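Thread: quick sanity check before group meeting

JM: Hey all, I'm pulling together slides for Thursday and realized we never actually wrote out the predicted structure for the chain we discussed last week. Dropping the sequence here so it's in one place. If anyone has concerns about the input, flag it before I start.
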Amino acid sequence: MTVSDVIGTRPSPMCLVCGSAGKPLYTDMADRLFSAPGRWTLVQCVAPDCGLLWLNPLPLEGEIGRAYRDYYTHDESETRRSRVSGLLSGIERAYLQSRYGYGSGLSFPQHLFGWLAWLYPGYAAELDLSVMWLDASRRGRLLDIGSGSGWLVEHLNTLGWRAEGLDFDPHAVEEARLRGLTVHLGDLASQRFPNGVFAAVTMCHSLEHVHDPLSWLIEVRRVIRPGGCVAIATPNSAALGRKVFGANWLGLDPPRHLQLFNIATMRRLLEKAGFSKLSVFTSPRHANGNFVGSWSIKRSGHFAMGTQQPVSARLLGRVVQVAASAIHRMRPELGEDLVAVAEK
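JM (edit): ok, ran it. Output follows.
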């Protein structure tokens, strides 16, 4: 390891949500996914009604890019792989129209057909994520922050949104632009968007990568029009997977995941940023993938993201998805994804 490989850090002793101190929860953690340098400590807020998790010390803003050198948004195969193909046909199309109002012309039996998505555990949750829990009635100009390969921007454009993306990774931005997508490069503040220009802002597994999520959400609120909304999906720090795997849980992802939220901390953060009409809940989406990754970390200390897993692991993952979906119905706070939709 050379000096240029080392990620500099700064102390981060206090909870950004409630201002309390943090106590060490998991220590001496390495990057288990992309082998970024450093050993990391995750702390938990000591306030009993908070529970925010965060890295302390925190990677420096100017050096965190070293943790993304081999990150999956650099992978052209990920950029070109459609994660939403076929969503406008069959069960997918019927589900999105029945639940969110996308599309038209379906008969009553076809509407019922859409609810078959619930029969395959985790399937409905994936379709919810594909529209970020946004009703068709909200359509307008949309900004997807942390757009990566641009799959969500591309998909929402097919559903009638005027979607564009924002990402700090120049390679991912270039690939998205080559596919005809409008994607901005850099952070949100540097774009200098006018006040109230977007009907909605989406953040699909990107808020946990932000050093100062409160300031970020205040800026998000500024660029949203009155009555518009932000929709967020992020790892749930209170997920069943973390309770089972502890420090080996895939969702921890040090050093890229800087803060991890639960329902209470997400609600308080959005309220501090000025949002109202909050809906904060969890989803069992991707419990199977999180289990496979966490199990690999537990056994070997590493998980190769994006690789084809053995048939046995995939089958076991599907069994876990069935179980996790059933548990989620009884304990809705235990889903792997934390979801928030809030209005300006």
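AS: nice. DSSP finds twelve helices and 13 strands in the chain. The chain has a mean pLDDT of 90.
JM: adding both to the slides.
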